[in-house]
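::Amino acid chain::
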Amino acid sequence: MESLLEKLILRFEKDSRPDLRNKISITWVCYKDPHPEPFSGIGAGWLEEKFYYPASVVKLFYACALEAWLMKDILVDSFELRRALSSMIVDSSNDATSYIVDLLTATTSGPSLQGERWEVWKRQRNLINDWLLSLDCKEFKSINCCQKTWSDGPFGRDRDFYGGNYNNRNSLNTIGTARFFESLMTGTLLPLKATKNLKTILFRSLDLMKRKANPENQVDGFLGEGLPKGSKLWSKAGLMSEARHDASWFFTPKGKIMLLIVFTTGQELAKDTFLLPAIAAELSQWNIS
């Protein structure tokens, strides 16, 4: 699997993608069991510990944190909360994400703060990171999930929280994202009801007519587009001016189960709508011996 992954990356690099080997990270896991347990797959990776700005992939982490907060009665369930959760994942809404981050951390955006109020605000904004650390998984120790997602960028206290050199931006790698997604999809991260809720909104239709009706479907230009007809897909994509990412869990028509996380960086790769589908098309054909 490692050899196949390397050959694939180098082939795509030669096809007008200079230095692709240093601009892409992949974690790829295949499972034999139709009901896999964590750590039960076999896999391969490429620069999977390299950190990236995750764009909207971070919303997967916020969605799971929301279910965890509800489970602990930290938040009260409501129609508005569910509407925001669905909009954040299904439509990748930044406005919904802002609302959910406020709920999770008991903070709000606004003018700059000073003194103790600023210190309290910063501690609160790190509550999601604190939760990730409490899961006691080595892959979660260095990731950073504490910022809202933006259309134009942060202002006021949010901009201050980024740091002068944006050194406190959200930060994920493919191995940490893979471990987190696997924990969710195998039912070990959250209780059964919460897991079912999240699987429902992470499910992506591969139907061509439905995709044409929704240009922001998070399938076209991403991993889902390359999957064999008849596959079933759960995913969360991320796209911005210098990033095109996707985190996917899928069943192929032949019953194979795979976890595939791909992050890329750079303006050219962000505009490249061929690469991620092509990677998924090749890797989804792999047969586990």
Summary: The chain has twelve helices and six strands. Residues 58-71 form the longest helix (14 residues). The longest strand covers residues 232-240.
